[in-house]
Each structure stands twice: as structure tokens, then as C-alpha cells.
Amino acid sequence: MKNRRQSFWAGVRAELPLLMGVVPFGLIYGVLALNAGLTPASAQMMSSIIFAGSAQFITAQLVREAVPGLVIVLTIAVVNLRHMLYSASVAPYISALPMNWKVLLSYLLTDEAYAVTIGNYEKEGVTPSGHWFFLGTGLTLWISWQLSTAAGILLGTTFPESWPLDFALPITFIALIIPTLKDRPAIAASLTAGAVALFAYELPYKLGLMIAGLLGILVGTFLEGRKSPKAVSPPVSPDHGGPGNGRTL
Amino acid sequence: MNIWLVLLLGGLLTFGMRFIFIYLLGRFDVPEMMRRALRFVPPAVLSAIVVPELVIQSGQMNLSLMNFRLLAGAVAVLVAWRTKNTLLTILGGMVVLVLLELLF
How confident is the model over A154-191, as pLDDT tens digits? Predict the structure, then answer.
């Protein structure tokens, strides 16, 4: 059993490889935000107030297009809807923590911290120091996001546009997805979501992302429910084998 | 609307969405159906983010071999699957993309 410090540093170490994708993304955000007409102070503060990469990119874009503030706020909310799913997903593992921990970990609940943390919880279950792992992933990401944003704002447009730095983040997500494809329902969930996201791409405010995510989850859950409990591959959680016809969605 | 007000409201909403179920599920039990569904959040949501990034180019779907991002993404999938190593996956995908763009 790991103690607090070991868990914290294990979280930090697990998050480090992802910085390969996050840091270039933060750099680009800093550059784009200034180009869109944000002041250095507001560009930097957005990284700590909103702390969600894709929403920040879109906000910068909308500020540039002089879209009304209320529309920007609503867009941020819709683009970040997926965080409600992350919230529901980690909630059972941290339900026993005191409120100040829940607030802090909620603030740190980004795509990258979530993916690493939920992987750890699924492997190790709830342990007395598990939330320190979560804190380690979240703080590592927070610090590197603030620093890379600042670097982007300072460097401005000095690095060549031909570098495909923006590709680092999707590649990072690929590294996060593949280990979650442990069985057929998970693979089906991934393929469904990917395909739907393509066809729903034209929808405004990244709504396609949310629809695709939900449909993927639905397909995965349905396929898993259809399998007889015997045929189920080693479950992630021990309370996995419910009634085989759980088609209540 | 003032930019600071936009950031503040956007930040509050974002925090609220990250917090809501963490807050609620301390008070209520998770229904069994939802518990099973949540296992599929990472593969589904992350795939919905990634696939358009690889396939859509300047607003158009591009499934041809000339879509270097798609090729590099496929290499990254292979590397991730064979090695389970995050760093190698990112490096592999980036190197392939840079090489393709340099060569063609």
C-alpha cells in the first residue's frame, strides 16, 4: 500500500509523458490568444480561471470575431459539458473525501488528469491515499499549463508556423485511449463515438463531441448488458455482473 | 460584456460542471446502470475528440493516403497498442508526421 507521498509522486510521474502534448498546446494557445486581441493578463488568467484547453482556444477565436459575451459564456459551457461525465465517473472513487478536497480535485479535473487518474482508480480501486495520486496528476498538469501559456504569450509569434505542434495533443489522446480498449464493448464505444463525431462535426459549439460521446457510451453499455455474465471478460469492478438484459437506457 | 466577466462566468460554469456529480454522489448512491455506463466515458469521449482532428482537414473529411495526420495517427495507434508507452506513442506520431511533411 502506497503512502501519501508515494501516491502523489506516482501521479506526477504518470502525468509527465502527457506534457509532450500539453506543453505545445499551451504555447500555441498563448500565441493565438494574443493574436486574437486578448491582453497578456487576460490570456494568462484564462488558463487558471477556465483551465480547459479547447474551451480557451474557442474563447480566443470568439473574442477575435467580437461575438457577444453571453454567447461566449454559453459556448464555453457547451464545449465543457463533457466534464460532467468525468465528474460522474470519478465521483464514486472520491465520495468519502472532505469537501475541500472535492472542490480542489474538481477544479483540477481536466481531460488529461481525468484519463490518467481514472486508469489508476480502475486498476487499484479506492485506497486511503488514492486522492493524492489524483492531486499529483492535476497539479502537474496545472503548473505546466500555466507555464506553457506564459511561454506562448512571451514568445509570441517567434516560432515557425510550419511546425505541426498542434498535432501533439490528438496524439496524446491516442496514447490515452488505446489502454482503455480492454474488451469489445469498449472498442465499440470508441469506434461509435469516433464515427459519430465525424458526421456531427458541422454542428455548432462542438455539440457533435457531446452527442458522439454519449452515443459511444450508450453502445458500449448496451453491448456489455447483452453479454451473459459468464462470457464477460475480467470485469473492472467486482459488481459488474448485473442482469443480462439491462437494456433500460 | 467585459472580458473579465466572460472569463469569470465561463470559469464558474466550467467548475460547476466538474464539481456537480462529485458533489451529488457524496450524498446519493450511484445507480448500477450508470456505474456500468461510466466505464465507457474515457474511450468514447476521447475518441470523439481525436477522430475529427485526424480526419477533418480544412473543413472536409479526408480519408486518403495524402492525409498525413491520419497516417501519423494510425502509426501512433500501432505504437500505443504494441508498447503501451505514452512517450513513445507521442514521439512516434510526431516523427512520422514531420517526416511525411518534409518528404512530400
Answer: 987 666 767 787 888 889 889 989 999 999 999 999 99
Instruction: For helices A207-226 and B41-55, give the axis angle rounded to 10 degrees.
Output: 130
Residue A31 included in any domain: yes
B55-78: burial string, b at 16+ Cβ within 10 Å, e else? bbeeeeeeeeeebbbbbbbebbbe
The reply to whether A22 and A70 lie within a common domain is yes
> B59 and B8 in one domain?
no
Chain A residues with CB under 8 Å of B25 CB are 88, 91-92, 95
pLDDT of residue A32: 84
Answer whether residue A60 is part of any domain: yes
User: What is the domain count for chain A?
Assistant: 2
Residue A72 confidence (pLDDT) above 50: yes
Is residue B34 located within the same domain as residue B51?
Answer: no
On whether both B68 and B81 belong to a single domain, the answer is yes
Cell of A157: 509569434
- The residue of chain B nearest to residue A177, with distances taken between CA atoms, is B43
Q: Which residues of B touch A237 (CB under 8 A)?
A: 35, 39
Residue of B18, B38, B46 lying closest to A106 (CB–CB): B18
Cα–Cα distance for residue pair A62/A53, rounded to 1 Å: 14
**DSSP letters for B76-96:** HHHHHHHH--HHHHHHHHHHH
Q: Are residues B30 and B76 in the same domain?
A: no
Sort A22 into a burial class: Cβ within 10 Å, 0-12 / 13-18 / 19+.
Answer: buried
Q: Does A52 reside within a domain?
A: yes
Residue B97 sits in the same domain as residue B53 = yes
ipTM of the modeled complex: 0.90
**pLDDT tens across A81-127, in order?**
899 999 999 999 999 999 999 999 999 999 999 999 999 999 999 99
| Cβ within 8 Å, pair A92-B54 | no
pTM for the full predicted model: 0.82
Separation in Å, CA of A180 to nearest CA in chain B: 6
Measured in angstroms, the CA of A184 and the nearest CA of chain B are apart by: 11
Which of A89, A163, A227, A237 is best to mutate for the B interface (most B CBs within 10 A)?
A89
Q: How many structural domains are present in chain B?
A: 2
Please check the confidence at residue B33 and state whether its pLDDT lies above 90: no
User: Which among A59, A171, A189 is the nearest to B10, CB-wise?
Assistant: A59
Partner-chain residue, chosen from A50, A171, A236, that has the shortest CB–CB distance to B10: A50
pLDDT of residue A159: 66
